Prior knowledge:
The protein has 200 residues and is of the alpha+beta class. It contains six helices and ten strands, in the order βαββαββαββββααβα.
Amino acid sequence: MLQNNELFKSTFSEIGEIVGGGTPSKKVEEYWNGDIPWLSPKDLSLNPAMFTSKGQNSISELGYKKSSAKLMPRNSILFSSRAPIGYITIAENDISTNQGFKSIIRKPEYPYTFVYELLKQETPLLESSASGSTFKEVSGTHLKNHEILIPSSTAMNSFHKSVEPLFETISLNEKEIQKLIETRGMLLPKLISGEISVAS
């Protein structure tokens, strides 16, 4: 039986299912502006957050069915695998992505906090070994077969118990910051147009 300080070799494919994304045709209006959140690497470049609930765009049920987009459940780990490589975020709710992601739908025995931190630690190695002629990309096969070291279940659960309150605090702070950004976005045009004034 493994002790708490022991590590064993594994791969990301043992941790969970590696899932790609897809983009519905932008020529079909009915595929867009629906109820399914849809994320691209550009969204994370504009808002690099630990937790993500949506991107700038959303797709419809029809767009979802007519594309290779997949719905990632809450607490899946979303990893931008190209253009650029290395943005990592945790799904705050069910969300789909474009093909610029390779996401990990983790097995229940692997805490989302651990998988997030492990993938963040392994990103430099993944990026350095990425391939591609036009631009570098981490393929699904590459991510699946990437070798990692895993501690015992006891150690992983202990880690999760220690850090989950910190992750939850970060999530709350990110939501508050987003509210402040949205409020600023509403007030600034009114200030510029003279609808509101600031007392001297």
